[in-house]
Amino acid sequence: MSKKVISTQNAPAAIGPYSQAIVANGFVFASGQIPVDPATGVIPEGIEAQARQVMTNMKNLMEAAGTDLDSVVKTSVFIKDMNDFAKVNAIYAEFFTTDCPARSCVEVARLPKDVLIEMEAIAVEK
To answer: The domain spanning residue 76 has which CATH number?
Structure first.
């Protein structure tokens, strides 16, 4: 099995013993992205701004891995409040416009840095 660690300054740095993403056997496995602006370290206020930052971070991470959001085949979205589902879905739809990936979305009790949303993804290499 081939394995390549992906690291980029255009997505939040890992805050623990994990990689931002791993490329293995034609797939990209992206760790959960939280809504931290990688340039400033700022977490935006509100679910819509946080969802947009998460999606931007994931887009940047996929590009660092040599692929893009169109190549994502599965996402897992974790949200603090299921009442925000429609707002998250609207932002998600701005980034995934055709042939959307399979997805799960679950409400969780708490996320790192007390953010409102986190998303992980699996993509195919280009």
So the answer is: 3.30.1330.40
